[in-house]
Amino acid sequence: MTAVHSTRMLILGSGPAGLSAAIYGARAGLAPIVVQGLQPGGQLTITTDVENYPGFRDVIQGPWLMEEMQAQAEHVGATMVWDTIVEVDLSERPFRLKGDGGTVYVCDTLVIATGAQAKWLGAPGEAELGGKGVSACATCDGFFYRGKRVAVIGGGNTAVEEALYLTNHSHEVTLIHRRDSLRAEKILQERLFKHPNIKVIWNKQVARFIEGEGAAGLVAIELEDTRDGSISQVAVEGGFVAIGHSPATELFKGSGLTLDKEGYITVRAGTSLTNIPGVFACGDVADKVYRQAVTAAGTGCMAALDAERFLQAADFPVPEDEVAGHPIDPAIEHAE
Ligand code: FAD
Ligand code: NAP
What we know:
Blueprint: E1 3-12, H1 16-27, E2 33-35, E3 49-50, E4 60-61, H2 62-75, E5 79-81, E6 85-89, E7 95-99, E8 104-112, E9 116-118, E10 134-135, H3 138-141, E11 149-153, H4 157-166, E12 172-176, H5 186-194, E13 198-201, E14 204-211, E15 218-225, E16 231-235, E17 238-241, E18 245-247, E19 279-281, H6 293-314, E20 332-335
Parallel strand pairs: 1-2, 1-8, 2-5, 8-19, 10-17, 11-12, 11-17, 12-13
Antiparallel strand pairs: 1-20, 3-4, 6-7, 7-8, 9-18, 14-15, 15-16
Helix pairs in contact: 1-2, 1-6, 4-5
The structure holds flavin-adenine dinucleotide and NADP nicotinamide-adenine-dinucleotide phosphate.
Flavin-adenine dinucleotide binds next to α1 and α6.
């Protein structure tokens, strides 16, 4: 017997985008179901201090912020489901999705908020020093390296922007790139090259991240020359890996949903509308530029409002047991 959940709004992902969509969707009486995925709360649950989410003068903790968002979403009527979607059929409405335990989700609108994950080098010491010197987000963690030496690894727009950003906090920023030219836009390169506090190390890849004695965290990065294999070291307290992100969209390949060449979901500019009517995308899964909790939350709100308007315009029949002003039980569970 297969469990089936039917809902007017299904949200994939429980990061800031998904939970913000849930808050707005629930307050619109749509009784959304949120499928939380393997990382309930999303990326902010793997960090500690968050200092740039508006509304908090004091430093807050990422996991705490996400617990609060979830509690707020549940308080206004969203239902959390601990499941991961493994199959989607977006060929007709209502859409049908399947969880990894076989549960089926049927929905009139789908909000995709599955996020993106930073790519890592896989070099020795990288995972061990995560949060102790190694990071993949300068905007998030740069502040903790005020007055310290930092390095950025990568040669794309993100790496160059992160190096430039880090000069706000550090007077000694090193960009480490595996080739002898950058792929970043020319205008960014010009800014980088003329910045007095940024040095570029060419043709080197990270051999390992070196931990200091005791609780010193990162103290240096060992580099290997990509031409002759020679080994050298650069002394830094912060190492920012900026070699790209992977949007969590594997699931949608072949579903008819338009993805760009890097796999991000394409949305109509200034909206959360995808190419499939009734499917909306928000947060990092559709954003390779800003990638912040507050922008994810903002676009999550947009997705819920867009979905609500879509349902109104599509004039979907209101389920019989819905009483005006009182959303129906979100999970109409039955057997198929
Ligand atoms: P995510 O937070 O990535 O959430 C994605 C959600 O989708 C997860 O719940 C996951 O379980 C779910 N999911 C994925 N696949 C499936 C599936 N198949 N089925 C169901 N669910 C699925 N930003 C800031 O503004 N300030 C900071 O200080 C800050 N610090 C950061 C520190 C670190 C270490 C990292 C990695 C990021 C940081 N960021 C910070 C960035 C911020 O966390 C992201 O921009 C934000 O979390 C993106 O939100 P999202 O909801 O789009 O996606
Ligand atoms: P990217 O363009 O894919 O660049 C990744 C960089 O990391 C490349 O220089 C690559 O080196 C390097 N790299 C990859 N794997 C590596 C490894 N294992 N070891 C060492 N180096 C490695 O990624 P991105 O910079 O994150 O940008 C992603 C997309 O977002 C791009 O389309 C970019 O234009 C866009 N973006 C735009 C803006 C903006 O418009 N302001 C800002 C940020 C990002 P090689 O060059 O040798 O391949």
